[in-house]
Design a protein that fits this description.
480 residues, alpha+beta, 13% strand, globular
Length: 480
């Protein structure tokens, strides 16, 4: 999906010879607005490009590498990610920008009818773009802001210096790594405690950078490293052990993948706000993931591939089938007394180097929740084959979205769910019956139906106050 920042000299008499800016993604203009004195809407806002340039450079690292928080947006996050905070006396759109590793998310909220003010923004949309494209567009805009859009003087000098500092940080391997970790933890540059960054850096040397990055996003803040060490200790002590070797081998069977996906997969241009991208079959079996492919869609295909390998394309997966698939003990999914791990902020998959067996710090104690959490761990092993450590968290990274959507699709496939309830307008009784049939929680069933636009999204309102920790692995399981 094409992302652009377009700037033009304004010809409007009320712009005082200023500039107009349009921010677009695909067919959406996030800056589309209606001025009270105009007869038609416009894609361009009137504002100095320098104001936007300073906001981008000030917040670059967090915009690019900090994910949207799972437990609700706090004021600090909004200041760093919402363009409306750019201020300067100009009415900017409510456009949130955040990073999901190789993708950048953009979410706009239009003003409701009847808003009193000089402008009313019209666009409410969600889009994801490739991070490399986002960076290229922003880099071009910043260079033009210095050379073409900013008058000579102290403002141009200050912007040039700020852009050059950012470029130097991005090209310095050590500084860039430090800045990325600060951002994942929710800190502005130079605000994160050195001890926290250094501890996470040391853990990354032992357990891999990708897993530590996920842990930092799952539990941002000054306690992130200490929390991860407790998670690792809990995983090592866990008696819940899975050997994913057989499942991974079945998933990798080339003949099965080709039978399941006989042709390239192409998505419509507006499939859940995701890009339209053909994906070749061989990328589905290798270590390289198709970055343009939405993680939830890749997860659905991966789950279907694995069901094909099991010879069970329809219906619920009974415990006997699931324990064989996961290579775990026959009583693994019995309800347990709530473990001490339930107080940890996320679960953790830990695999010793060269081994296929994983120790999992499980947070669930109900049988259906343990099934879901264990399948998420398998999804993590599929997503990050070579990683020895994988958090199982409520965060909204692409990796966590893949885990959740994989578990939903493997345990409760949408087509089977609709076939079982026998209606596309299921009620509470239908949802309860389906949850018992597929041996998942009612929340999993609701999430599948919401993601397929059968139920309205208000059905997924969190069952606990905003700002509190998630109560279990199935909270915030929306896979999108």
């Amino acid at each position: 999906m094409t992302f652009s920042i377009d700037v033009r000299q304004s010809s409007r008499t009320d712009s005082q010879g200023g500039w107009e800016i349009a921010i677009r993604c695909g067919g959406t203009a996030f800056t589309r607005l209606f001025r009270a004195r105009d007869s038609s809407p416009s894609d361009y806002l009137i504002a100095p490009p320098t104001q936007l340039a300073f906001w981008l450079t000030d917040n670059w690292w967090r915009l690019r590498w900090e994910c949207m928080p799972a437990a609700g947006i706090a004021p600090d996050w909004r200041l760093a990610h919402d363009l409306s905070s750019a201020g300067g006396g100009y009415a900017w759109p409510r456009l949130a920008i955040w990073g999901e590793d190789e993708r950048v998310g953009l979410l706009s909220h239009g003003d409701p009818p009847g808003v009193v003010g000089p402008v009313r923004y019209l666009s409410s949309d969600l889009a994801f773009v490739e991070a490399a494209d986002f960076e290229d567009v922003c880099d071009t805009f910043l260079r033009n802001s210095i050379d073409a859009y900013t008058p000579d003087g102290t403002e141009r000098t200050a912007l040039r210096e700020q852009v050059h500092i950012l470029e130097a940080e991005r090209t310095d391997t050590e500084i860039a790594a430090w800045r990325r970790m600060e951002a994942r933890l929710g800190f502005d540059p130079d605000d994160a405690p050195e001890r926290t960054i250094e501890s996470l850096t040391n853990l990354a040397k032992r357990y891999g950078q990708a897993g530590v990055d996920e842990a930092a996003t799952a539990m941002p803040g000054v306690e992130s490293a200490d929390t991860l060490e407790r998670e690792i200790e809990a995983a090592r002590a866990s008696r819940f052990v899975c050997d994913f070797g057989a499942a991974l081998k079945a998933y990798d069977d080339e003949d099965i993948v080709r039978a399941t996906h006989p042709a390239p997969v192409v998505f419509s241009p507006f499939d859940n706000g995701e890009p339209s991208t053909p994906v070749s079959i061989d990328t589905l079996t290798g270590q390289q993931r198709p970055d343009r492919m939405p993680p939830w869609k890749l997860a659905e295909q991966s789950a279907q591939t694995l069901r094909e390998a099991l010879g069970q394309t329809r219906g619920p997966l009974r415990n006997s089938v699931l324990t064989d698939l996961l290579g775990t003990a026959g009583d693994a999914f019995r309800a347990r007394i709530p473990p001490s791990n339930s107080m940890l902020p996320y679960g953790l998959r830990l695999t010793d180097p060269g081994q296929t067996a994983s120790h999992i710090a499980m947070r669930s104690w109900r049988a259906q929740d343990r099934r879901f959490e264990a399948v998420r761990a398998l999804g993590d092993a599929i997503w990050a084959r070579d990683d020895t450590m994988g958090p199982i968290a409520a965060s909204k990274t692409a990796r966590q979205k893949f885990q959740r959507a994989f578990a939903q699709s493997l345990l409760c496939p949408y087509d089977d769910l609709i076939a079982y309830v026998g209606t596309e307008r299921p009620g509470e009784g239908d949802i309860s019956a389906a949850a018992r049939h597929f041996h998942v929680s009612e929340r999993v069933v609701q999430t599948v139906l919401v993601n397929k636009h059968v139920l309205e999204r208000h059905h997924l309102e969190p069952p606990f106050p905003r700002g509190t920790a998630a109560s279990g692995p199935e909270d915030y399981i929306d896979a999108r």
